[in-house]
TrEMBL record, chains A, B:
UniProt GO MF annotations: ATP binding; formate-tetrahydrofolate ligase activity
Organism: Shewanella cyperi
Classification via HAMAP family: FTHFS (MF_01543)
Enzyme Commission (EC) number: 6.3.4.3
Name of the protein in question: Formate--tetrahydrofolate ligase
Catalytic activity: (6S)-5,6,7,8-tetrahydrofolate + formate + ATP = (6R)-10-formyltetrahydrofolate + ADP + phosphate
Record-stated family: Belongs to the formate--tetrahydrofolate ligase family.
Entry-linked Pfam families: FTHFS
UniProt pathway: One-carbon metabolism; tetrahydrofolate interconversion
InterPro entries, per the entry: Formate_THF_ligase, Formate_THF_ligase_CS, P-loop_NTPase
Amino acid sequence: MRSDMDISRSASLQPLADIAARLGLTPNQWRLYGSHKAKVSLSAIPEQTDRPRGKLVVVTAVTPTPFGEGKTVTTIGVTQGLQHLGQKVCACIRQPSLGPVFGVKGGAAGGGFSQVVPMEDLNLHMTGDIHAVTSAHNLAAAAIDARLHHETRMGERFERQTGLKRLNIDPERILWRRVVDHNDRALRQIQVGLGQGNGPEHENGFDITAASELMAILALCRDLKDMRKRIGQVLLALDVDGKPVSAEDLGVAGAMTAIMRDAIEPTLMQTLSGAPCLVHAGPFANIAHGNSSIIADRIALAHADFVVTEGGFGSDMGFEKFCNIKCRQSGERPAAAVLVVTLRALKANSGLGDEASSQEKLAAGFANLAWHISNVQGYGIPAVVAINHFAEDAQQELLWLKEQALAAGAFGCEISDAFSLGAEGAAALAAVVLKATAQQSEFKQLYSADDSFGAKLMTLAERYGAAGVLMSPEADADLAELTRLGLDKLPLCMAKTPLSISHDPALKGAPRGFELPVRRLRVSAGAGFITVLTGNVMTMPGLGPKPGYLAIDIDDDGQIVGLA
Amino acid sequence: MRSDMDISRSASLQPLADIAARLGLTPNQWRLYGSHKAKVSLSAIPEQTDRPRGKLVVVTAVTPTPFGEGKTVTTIGVTQGLQHLGQKVCACIRQPSLGPVFGVKGGAAGGGFSQVVPMEDLNLHMTGDIHAVTSAHNLAAAAIDARLHHETRMGERFERQTGLKRLNIDPERILWRRVVDHNDRALRQIQVGLGQGNGPEHENGFDITAASELMAILALCRDLKDMRKRIGQVLLALDVDGKPVSAEDLGVAGAMTAIMRDAIEPTLMQTLSGAPCLVHAGPFANIAHGNSSIIADRIALAHADFVVTEGGFGSDMGFEKFCNIKCRQSGERPAAAVLVVTLRALKANSGLGDEASSQEKLAAGFANLAWHISNVQGYGIPAVVAINHFAEDAQQELLWLKEQALAAGAFGCEISDAFSLGAEGAAALAAVVLKATAQQSEFKQLYSADDSFGAKLMTLAERYGAAGVLMSPEADADLAELTRLGLDKLPLCMAKTPLSISHDPALKGAPRGFELPVRRLRVSAGAGFITVLTGNVMTMPGLGPKPGYLAIDIDDDGQIVGLA
């Protein structure tokens, strides 16, 4: 079988000017960044237009397994399938983080004949947006420690000599960690400011950039002014009296915005079939809100008739946040969801061991799909199940699954050969998606912004199947603090394992009756949500014992090899 | 007076295609990155050509002061001046680090009417090369700690389960620190791997990216294969038996190279007069080798008749390393040096206080210029002194200085109005540079590669004016280690204060008879030099009490303000 990289490299790419024209962009609305990428200006979002806005389709999945279910393959597949059916369509996906690229899977550009190309451009720096987020984030961290250092060192002289107001940051209550776009376990918890003249010493740590609040802001803001305002609101620390210290207070919000100014423009690339794809922002869906940007969606919806986007991981993760966080902020109403499933994933989700037959595993694992269908429907939109087809799949299992999915309430169910056949392999799926989007969206969020923190949390927990919620003393204290700061009414961004609908990766299928533990709360005042850390969710992954980077190199022609 | 940013923003930029054509590049040799930047392919370096190679002019300066002497202004000034005289010329400069941009001076694109534009593109991410260096560097750091973690955790099982050979890295002898492109004092010395399951715990720290060996490799390599090989040679750690562990041993060199693949291409921009400028790599000259890339020089020398580049800080710093490290590796022979001086800098270099008259200070400070003239001449090339003119300069002091400079052996001396008048203000200076380059270069390095470490060090120390060298016990141990590893014969990269010809910023003018202390040695096996840390040189700057970022913001039009 040809590798994704082989297929990507042997593809004859279309001039990006053709791709931009296909999306309906005028030449002054985009600028090339290298041969096959372009930054799209926010001027591509019209203030007023007679054109009906496109329909938004969100791709989600059953509970993921280590095998990969092919969600991005299906997102690109549906895009290419709709294009094949003569529709004007645009995909909107996230920029991959280098952490997973070098850690595990080697690439996140889709695969087979449903890819965004060139895949190495997408998987490595693209146009530098993630680096900009990292840089802006770490400038704030450096600024906090520098201010602390000088106020401590200069004492009473500080205000007189600098003309700046003392902030009196409490070194034990710095809320802003640092970020790096790698899987770096050793940086999870560190002690900084050691050594003569480098203090005050205090505990700190690094998250992966995908977990940065600035990444969430990039994905959620409407325009540059909104981004500037949100960055100013970011809560960096508390002072010795417990009062909040924001990026605005520290005077660093303008510089942070300047660093991210170009990052606000989505990057236009193409699928293997020449469909436009806007790539923008990259929050993870387990430790962050897991969706590409509102700005990219707005550009795409203004120009295309169909916009296909995806939320990370299962429908309990990225899709939930798509509905309750992203659409709440953007005001968009998705027309339909595509729910990706594989036979292999359902069997793995059964929790059954080798003693069970393939059919037994599939039947048991189906409960997981049924939960996800019902979850999607709970948001008032039709769920189209896409069975991502693998060569080894048994025909009768595929037929059984299709029947069961429809019986469980799916609007439609189609087998997708997007990976092996590209656009044609996803045409049947795309036709059902077309039909699903023809009806009026009755989209609704799961909870109201006015609900209390406890009510919001309980609504989500019950949806997962939990019998109750167990707040740790630290989480209770965090909530008291948030309430004191007037920030307790924000929507929730659940940080939990993607490997179960619950908080516990060992609970397979559609678990019920468990107690959802809440370890800590973190507020993202600029992004506009409260992150709820359940179980032992890591905001910084680690490299495994045999990491993906081992395979990656350049060949004699200077081409990158080993990315997938 | 108009700000640099105002001048930059109101400039009518020429299409980059015109700039590329002016340099003689064919359209397949460059790719746009945004409207006003282009990556230039290494295919622009011809294997063979009938065309005579251009002449290389290196710009250096007297001992710098906090006021700024205008070295980049003069580099761009001479470039624009040569263009004004009808010459085919290209400037080659470094990419500015974000550390100083947000820390101190707000920009490093030249100034006034001798700038590289757009200045905010140059000063912020440009085409992302520095971010790529940061990312590649930190991938290696994460890889070291992950390997250490898994070998420790898995014990005997490691080799069996991964198929990889144990490296047995000694956590106390990890030589690879981490990097960030900010001034972040609190990260100078840190403890990593704290907390359950994140260890082994050990001391580490961050340098600024400009000090990364990968930045030096980017600046010194000849092509992608050479870069790949050098990255493989980078010494990351010692194992428990004291044997070296390289990036190749860790299997991470290929991935690091992949991250830096696009960074190897210099970025083409333009000066305010429309002269081509290649911007590439950004090692500092105090803690690293302080020069832009060999690749950029090679591209420029292949196409232009004159190439104007600069070494960081005074001629004891970047210029020395230009000659003894960069030219040793590239084989290039500079035709002339331009030595930038200001009246203000010489007075500050006098070490005299307010009790002395202006003329007394100038006379005393002149010893500094005399040293730099003689230093340049010691390399066998003519020194053209450029007096960077400020409005407040007294005419008679300017004339006195010009006379003295010629008497001290300068090939020529001209007053430069490059800042206020652009190309015309530097035309007289450029004419003298033209004359200086007309003679045959008798360029020679200061020491031979075969000299022992001690002999090389003594040669440099004597040139500074030192009576001797004092190696710390740690430095002696470092040297013994380097000798054991067979790496003691590499050229030296002196890490010292730029604020004195000596190691001590308090020693002004042209100090003599001091003892040069050597604190530690660090080897850069891939870059090919030994860094000699003198005094208390910091490889990570800190933000001051009133840092530059306070002024930086975006305005209502989304333009960046406050950069200079």
